[in-house]
Amino acid sequence: MKTLHVVGFKNSGKTTLVSHWITVLKHLGYEVAVLKHHGHGGAPELPPAHTDTVQFLEFGAVSTLVAGGDMIQLIQNKERSFEQLKALAASSEPDVLLIEGYKQEVGEKVVLIRNEEERQELESLSGIIRTEKTAELFEDITRLDDWLQEWVEARL
Known about the structure:
This protein is α/β, with parallel strands linked by helices. The protein has 5 helices and 7 strands.
């Protein structure tokens, strides 16, 4: 499994790029998983309050897992290490794991910047293999898509 982080500050285009790259990689025949850091403070949004899943959590379950229709939804009320989260994301045996965020963790990184101040703040991160300006991200997206394909194929 190949692993690539897409990092940057809030609203730098991380989710947009990761979403686009999922479609690119899928078109190339790869299975893709995503691990996203919820950097907006607090817990991620839960399903609607009337669901069984939320009821189980409200009554004290440390985790709930719902399975059906070739899909699994897992919610846990427990902090996990980055390595444990990667293992969970990789449990579907993808060819590529795209990681949105987790900029302080070890791994190859594409850094998205909006200005020179952000470049200076992020240039000390470990594992940077490419830096892109957010404003130029989709001006010639095929250039970046070609780079991604080469990156994946070099790691086969």
